[in-house]
Design brief:
This protein has 2 domains: 1-33; 35-171, no CATH class. The longest helix is centred in the N-terminal third of the chain and has 32 residues, at 2-33. The chain is built from 2 helices and 12 strands; from the N terminus they run H-E-E-E-E-E-E-E-E-E-H-E-E-E. It has a 5-stranded antiparallel β-sheet. Strands 6-5-7-8 form a 4-stranded antiparallel β-sheet, with no helix packed on it. The chain has a 3-stranded antiparallel β-sheet with strand order 2-3-9. By secondary structure, it is of the alpha+beta class. The termini are far apart. The protein is globular. The chain has helices at 2-33, 135-139; strands spanning 35-42, 50-51, 54-56, 58-59, 82-90, 93-100, 109-115, 121-122, 127-129, 144-150, 156-163, 166-167.
Length: 172
């Protein structure tokens, strides 16, 4: 029985390691090969912008419109639902063209979000970890933009944060 327990233990450990590697691999692939877009952030309550060693980020495109392009008027999208935001270039940032629950067809550029309890979209890029003591730079900025890489499924990964036009890394 000890041999079976040892095999099960190593199988569970191997599965956990494989899961972590797959998660990291998907994100690294998006960073390396994903479509790069720049998103405009919106102000967050300054009392909660910086919590610990990360900044809370919210995006202009996270507002859910009154009507989705592929659903009838009055259709309510419940929390936890996936919504795709089709993006278009608007100068130096990308703006929302339309929102839909059905995945857009190629060649559309889109980002995948989940409706949160507040009725806004969460793209999985709402926090940005900063070195200790540097959060005030983002907190006091007039303009914060986030450059993300989008994979083929619309999942986003933060590449860099631009604070008043300059990369955050150069401001420390």
């Amino acid at each position: 029985m000890n041999r079976l327990a040892a095999i099960l233990f190593f199988a569970v450990v191997a599965a956990q390691v494989a899961s972590l590697l797959a998660f990291a691999g998907v994100r690294e692939l998006a960073l390396a090969r994903g479509r790069e877009v720049t998103l405009q952030t919106v102000p967050v309550d300054p009392r909660s912008l910086l919590q610990g060693d990360y900044a809370i980020l919210d995006y202009e495109i996270a507002r859910l419109p009154g009507r989705l392009s592929d659903r009838p008027a009055g259709h309510v999208v419940p929390a936890g639902s996936v919504v795709y935001v089709v993006l278009e270039e608007c100068g130096d940032v990308w703006c929302d063209l339309r929102h839909a629950v059905d995945r857009p067809a190629y060649p559309a550029v889109y980002i995948r979000g989940t409706v949160n309890a507040r009725g806004r979209l969460d793209f999985g890029i709402g926090t940005y970890f900063v070195p200790e003591g540097t959060g005030h730079i983002i907190e006091q900025a007039r303009d914060v933009k986030v450059v993300v890489a989008l994979d083929d499924a619309g999942r986003a990964v933060i590449k860099r944060v631009l604070v008043d036009g300059a990369p955050f890394e150069t401001m420390r």
